[in-house]
Write a structure and sequence with these properties.
Blueprint (H helix, E strand, L loop, with lengths): L1 E2 L2 E3 L2 E3 L3 E7 L4 E7 L3 H18 L4 H17 L1 H12 L3 H22 L9 E4 L2 E9 L2 E5 L5 H15 L2 E5 L6 H11 L7 E3 L4 H9 L5 E5 L2 H11 L5 E5 L4 E5 L5 H13 L9 E7 L3 H13 L16 H12 L6 E4 L13 E4 L6 H4 L6 E7 L2 H9 L3 E2 L1 E5 L3 H10 L4 E4 L14 E2 L2 E2 L4 H7 L1 E9 L2
Parallel strand pairs: 1-5, 8-9, 8-11, 9-10, 11-12, 13-14, 13-19, 14-17, 16-17, 19-20
Antiparallel strand pairs: 2-3, 4-5, 6-7, 7-23, 12-22, 15-16, 18-21
Length: about 475
């Protein structure tokens, strides 16, 4: 039984470990983590505040060196991190090693380089007798809350830009997936001065205490739209900056000139990777009426061919019994017009669920409108380019989308009109560290990854000097 502790001011802090966490592949409990109270949260922020006084003065070169050292430590401890990540998520080990743990190290290396070339303006005389310049500074102490669907990689997305910009951090992992984040915090203590990186475990109460605390100048969360709205409301009391990466309901718009089999396979993998527990996963397939029946059948075949759980799996289990209940609830409420082409039920041990393709749905159906966050994909047809765009944009979410066609002019027009923060063309979920990731509307504010993600963790100061 794993017994986790918080990491505050460079030390493991003893606390009663009362929050159980489980292996979703088996349903068995594997450990306990602290459910940190206000006193613990305050201690973490006090440590981060004290460390900020010196860390904010470090040069980009120093911050680059530290990030590169942490990236090296991640690679050297990949097996240890992988064990913890797979144990808490049930994910396929091979995919997780390459696409999450090692990719996380690469993302740190990107931010290590980006902090050396942050954009700004040169000193200029806008008014005679005065010189003006703009300083880009760290924001201060940052409260960060990560989700359970990508616990390690989301910690990279948050720590990387925050530390590169010169901030100090108190980070809370999700209560169901704390293990890999605590290990990451231990590795960070080998590199960073005490108090720069603090890890606090806990549930919703811990997260609320972090958002309410007076010290942090910014709160960054990746989670549901409901959680983001609650954080934004609570943060308004102390006028904190908020950085929100929230829900999605990504459409894949498929035109009649696509290669049906290869497109169906690509969309199926993008929809069901990580058991569909991904805010950018394809959830709505909008396909031209001329190929609707053939494409829906190919999509169902591609979904059914995916291996669920076990060795060499394409997708692992859902995260928890609560998530399993949520997915099953959506399917139990399907209207009469909806037809399940494949899947639709749990399978094997633990919290595994079959990849599910549903045809015959209409825009007002619950499964079309609401974020399910599971391996469930709906199919709708359209007759015209205009109708495709209307269906695609008919959602309060605006995170990610894709369009599938070899017609350059059509793709250009559709890309321009899709109201989403990311649009992929003949692909989906390609996310190098150089590309910004973030949405509009109910999908959040701000960007992760890229130089834009780094800039989100800075503030702008105008400085004007008299020539006298």
């Amino acid at each position: 039984m794993i017994q986790l502790k918080n990491i505050i001011n460079g030390e493991h802090v003893g606390a009663t470990a009362s929050l159980p966490f489980f292996n979703p592949a088996t349903g068995e409990q594997i450990g306990l983590a602290p459910d940190s109270d206000n006193t613990v949260v305050d201690a973490a922020f006090q440590a981060a505040s004290a460390a900020y006084k010196s860390y904010k003065r470090t040069t980009p070169q120093t911050r680059q060196t530290l990030l590169l050292q942490l990236a090296d430590l991640i690679e050297a401890n990949v097996d240890r991190l992988l064990e913890a990540e797979v144990a808490c998520t049930g994910k396929p080990a091979a995919l997780t090693r390459d696409l999450e743990i090692l990719r996380g190290a690469d993302q740190l290396r990107f931010f290590a380089g980006a902090c050396r070339v942050v954009s700004g303006t040169a000193q200029t005389e806008y008014v005679e007798g005065f010189s003006s310049t703009v300083r880009r500074e760290p924001i201060g102490v940052v409260a960060q809350i990560t989700p359970w669907n990508y616990p390690f990689m989301m910690a990279m997305w948050k720590l990387g830009p925050a530390l590169a910009a010169g901030n100090t951090v108190v980070l809370k992992p999700a209560d169901t997936t704390p293990w890999s984040t605590v290990i990451l915090g231990e590795l960070a203590q080998q590199v960073y001065p005490a108090g720069v990186v603090n890890i606090v475990c806990g549930g919703r109460g811990t997260g609320a205490a972090m958002v309410d605390h007076e010290i942090p100048e910014m709160v960054s969360i990746t989670g549901s739209t409901r959680a983001g709205a609650q954080v934004m409301s609570a943060a308004s009391k102390t006028l904190k900056n908020v950085h929100l990466e929230l829900g999605g309901k990504a459409p894949a718009v498929v035109f009649a000139d696509c290669d049906i089999d290869s497109t169906a396979r690509d969309i199926a993998f993008s929809a069901f990777f990580n058991a569909g527990q991904d805010c950018t996963a394809v959830t709505r397939v909008l396909v031209h009426q001329d190929i609707h029946s053939e494409f829906a059948a190919a999509l169902a075949d591609a979904a059914a061919a995916l291996k669920v759980g076990g060795d060499n799996a394409d997708l692992g289990p859902l995260n928890s019994t609560a998530q399993l209940d949520q997915v099953e609830g959506f399917l139990s409420r399907l209207p009469a017009n909806a037809r399940i082409l494949t899947g639709g039920k749990r399978t094997g041990t633990g919290y595994h669920f079959e990849p599910t393709v549903i045809d015959g749905v209409v825009p007002t159906d619950e499964v079309v409108r609401e974020e399910i966050f599971g391996p469930v994909l709906t199919v709708q047809s359209f007759a015209t380019e205009e109708e495709a765009l209307e269906l695609a944009n008919d959602t309060r979410y605006a995170l990610a989308s894709s369009v599938w066609s070899s017609n350059h002019g059509l793709v250009t027009r559709v890309t321009n009109e899709l109201d989403f923060g990311t649009v992929w063309i003949n692909c989906h979920q390609v996310m190098p560290a150089e590309n910004p990731h973030g949405g509009f509307k109910h999908s959040g504010t701000g960007k992760d990854l890229s130089v834009f993600g780094l800039e989100d963790y800075t503030r702008i100061k105008s400085v004007t000097t008299s020539h006298r």
